[in-house]
Specification:
With 429 residues, the protein is mainly beta. The chain is 11% helix and 49% strand. It has an 18-stranded antiparallel barrel.
Length: 429
């Protein structure tokens, strides 16, 4: 036993001596110095690659809804922050936002008391943390990307999951997000768990419009087959845990395909199609089944115009209709925002056509859109809408926009006739 202890003690001494010898040797010291200097150089490179964020959006929006006074919403939205460079696969972002108005009494922001009553321009004055996240990526690990924190999430066409980017205060998510291509370049698999949705009204919003905390699982898998087709399958499970948001409890399963078929150097056919089935989920107190469908096709003639026609169906089973609580709803069913509720409990059908003439001026785009609406249950005429949108990108930092919308209500059940006109200047640095 004594000999064994002596052997162990000698062994420990020899090991310690060898460790000290290696550590103090010039070659080891140089190796450690190289590692330290390499890490420092990478850190300094990450600091150097960090970029400030400054994004200013100046907007004037005129809104007039029948039976309400008009609104003139003059607002300035400023996003400011910093995005770091990458250090050993890690990077981060911190961004604040401020929306202010020189004359807040000129419009109703859907937050303060509507004592006009005035038409809604949904851009309340607000200062908040817009995004704050930390991310890690490793291309060798199947294109792995992980991100956690407050972030912007936009999936596909924003019909189901979007950032409501049209409004001055965008919608963000407190979420964990994982992306991977599983080693296949054309594949993209995304899983997101969101525990908080930060909506455009923040904590100032009324019942059903403010920030809320759902337990949300989002799975999106897509495969890019070149320009001809990108195929996507998705499943979105939303379970709000607050009483005012239970109607948003839903499980949505679907797929979509989008692409462009090239016929010749001068002719192409852009198209998209989508289908989804939705039913109640979690704490939703209403049991329902509803269907969603979208089909759109166009013809692009080089140097002349792009003409498109489409049909969108937001179904209802009379108990409830398709809900899209995380959607960028302004993008669909007309810019007048008459159908942000997807047509109400009776659902909505939207037939639309558009034409975008080729403008012989670099950076200038113009588009005309017409919508005809019906409800899904009964097929009542809900009116029609006329849209115009024009954008001009002066350079990479400065852009301009004009958008006009006129909705003419149909039968008694349709929303009120309304007009919107927006002028906007965006500065990005």
């Amino acid at each position: 036993m004594v000999a064994t202890k002596r052997f162990l003690n000698v062994g420990r001494c020899v090991t310690a001596a060898c460790f000290l010898a290696v550590t103090l040797s010039p070659s080891y010291a140089l190796a450690e110095d190289d590692k330290a200097s390499g890490a420092l150089a990478e850190l300094m490179a990450a600091v150097k690659d960090s970029k400030p964020i400054l994004d200013v959006n100046l907007r004037w929006e005129y809104a007039k809804i029948n039976a309400f006074q008009h609104s003139h919403g003059a607002t300035a939205r400023t996003r400011f922050g910093v995005a770091t460079g990458t250090f050993h696969g890690w990077k981060g972002l911190l961004e604040g936002v401020n929306t202010a108005s020189p004359k807040p009494s000129g419009y109703f922001d859907a937050v303060e008391t509507n004592d006009g009553p005035q038409s809604v321009v949904a851009d309340p004055e607000r200062t908040a943390v817009n995004r704050a996240w930390l991310a890690f990526s490793k291309e060798e690990w199947g294109g792995l990307e992980m991100k956690g924190g407050r972030q912007r999430i936009k999936l596909d066409d924003d019909r189901w999951i979007g950032n409501v980017g049209w409004r001055q205060n965008e919608q963000t998510y407190d979420a964990a997000r994982v992306k991977t291509n599983l080693g296949m370049e054309k594949l993209l698999v995304q899983y997101i768990y969101a525990w908080q949705v930060n909506r455009i009204f923040g904590d100032q919003g009324g019942a059903g419009t403010r920030d809320f905390g759902p337990r949300s699982h989002m799975l999106n898998v897509s495969y890019a087959g070149g320009k001809a087709a990108r195929i996507t399958g998705f499943a979105y499970l939303i379970d709000p845990n607050q009483a005012n948001f239970r109607a948003f409890g839903s499980a949505t399963y679907g797929g979509r395909v989008k692409g462009t078929i090239t016929l010749s150097d001068d002719l192409a056919v852009p198209y998209q199609a989508s289908y989804a089935y939705q039913h109640d989920w979690g704490n939703n107190q209403v049991s329902y089944d509803a269907h969603y469908a979208l089909a759109e096709a166009g013809l692009k003639v080089k140097g002349l115009a792009t003409v498109s026609a489409g049909y969108e169906h937001l179904g209802s089973d009379t108990d409830a209709r398709v809900v899209t609580p995380f959607s960028t709803a302004h993008k669909f069913n007309g810019f007048a925002d008459a159908f942000l509720n997807n047509g109400g409990v009776r659902g909505l059908r939207d037939l639309y056509v558009s034409i975008a003439p080729a403008i012989p001026c670099k950076g200038l785009k113009l588009k005309f859109i017409f919508h005809q609406f019906w409800d899904d249950q009964g097929g009542d005429n809900l009116g029609e809408e006329y849209n115009i949108v024009s954008t001009y990108k002066w350079n990479e930092h400065i852009g301009f926009l004009w958008k006009f919308a006129y909705f003419d209500g149909g039968k008694t059940r349709s929303p009120a006739t309304r007009t919107r006109s927006i002028l906007q200047t965006t500065l990005r640095f």
